[in-house]
Model the fold of this input.
Amino acid sequence: MINRRIHSIGKQIFVFAAGVFALGLIINATPASADGFGPVKAPKVNAKKAALGKRLFFDPRLSGDAAISCSTCHIPSKGFADGLELSKAYPGSDGFRNTPTLINTAQRAAWFHDGRIGTNLNDVTRESITETYNMNMDMRLMQERVKQDPIYVKMFKEAGYGEPSNGSIRKAIPEYLKTLTSRGSAFDAGKMSDAAKRGFELFKGKAGCASCHSGNRFTDDQPHNTGVPNNPEIWKKPLRHMTYVAFGLFMGIENIMNVRRDVGAHVRTHKADGSDIGKFMTPTLRELNQTAPYMHNGMIKTLKQVVEFYNNGGGNDVNKDSRIKPLGLSKEERSNLVAFLGSLSGKPLTGAQHVWKEKINVNYQPIKDWLKQRN
Ligand code: HEC
Ligand code: HEC
Done:
């Protein structure tokens, strides 16, 4: 009898679970495909907060000298990257890393090429604004500047934030970043060429790419060492080198004046045996057609060269991941892989939903006058 009751409860649970499963199939419009790859789901967004974040993202008043905005480096028509090997920086310095795309960035588990921020986009936004070589802005000054603009006062209020504050600026910008989701690639539309389809099979199979480039964004959100060579510009150009040294001193990189490489994830994990030196976060493979050159330092120019790099077993590094080894792919297989990588890009996100068209400085006369004098 007890047995029968258990049996019948079991049956009810089964029927219930089957129902939930069927319902799940109906509700979930974009299910992951059987191999774990599928379209990236768009996060839920608060439209008013995102619109405010969008204006802030394109506003140069968020930088110390009111000359650069987030969009100076994260350019919408370039997949929210900048097309440069190494990024620009705040006037008077120069960058030492390649600007990554911001499309799908809201779904990462850790940010920056070394993964040094593992909390949330609020912290990434703070660092981007206050870092001396990035936007060099004091948060209190920023807050007061933003309050000078009546349009902001209204937008903050309407978004439910009350008076403009640095805390809400750090919330509104991530809300905007959540609107940047990959859309319309041949891969998602099921319109891949035959070559790209064969490339996808190689990607998951013989070429071994999917062990790190996994999931809908094609990244495991983990750091690995593939042996990408260092970019000599960082040691040749004083403006870049001093930025890297300042960063290194801040992050506690040992013996920084003698370090001749970007140590990568070591700044986060500080392993005593140095086995984390030269590890970089696996990047997303979406929107690659918009974001050349590639890797944390722009050292590889084209997708064809990226595939050659992997086919040759990556670069030279004592810490190189054991999965990175010569692949022996034929010329045709290599070109199939390139075709597959190309199928993961959609149209640039340059519509009104994403880009702020208004000429922003117009509402803040003192800065408008000052910028006019400078130009
Ligand atoms: C001067 C150029 C520049 C400006 C201005 C800039 N960024 Fe960046 N951004 C970069 C570079 C370079 C990196 C990679 C840095 C690293 O790995 O150390 C980056 C990384 C990021 C990332 C992490 C992406 C990832 O996949 O890990 C986010 C998010 C981001 N920036 C958002 C912003 C926001 C928001 C602003 C404005 C408040 C901004 N950035 C301003 C150049 C810039
Ligand atoms: C061991 C993990 C691993 C494997 C296996 C792997 N990758 Fe990567 N991939 C990475 C990491 C880490 C980076 C970033 C390296 C850097 O920035 O220096 C990267 C970078 C890339 C980039 C550059 C993206 C950008 O925006 O800069 C492409 C393209 C790429 N990989 C394609 C592939 C292909 C194709 C394969 C298979 C032949 C493959 N990867 C195998 C970890 C891996």
Remarks:
- The CA atoms of residues 122 and 167 lie 9 Å apart.
- The beta strands are 223-224, 280-281.
- Residues 47-182+349-374 form a domain with the Cytochrome Bc1 Complex; Chain D, domain 2 fold (CATH 1.10.760.10).
- Residues 113, 207-209, 211-213, 224, 226, 228, 280, 282-283, 285, 288, 291, 294-296, 306-307, 310, 321, 323-324, 337, 341 surround heme C (ligand 2) (CB under 6 Å).
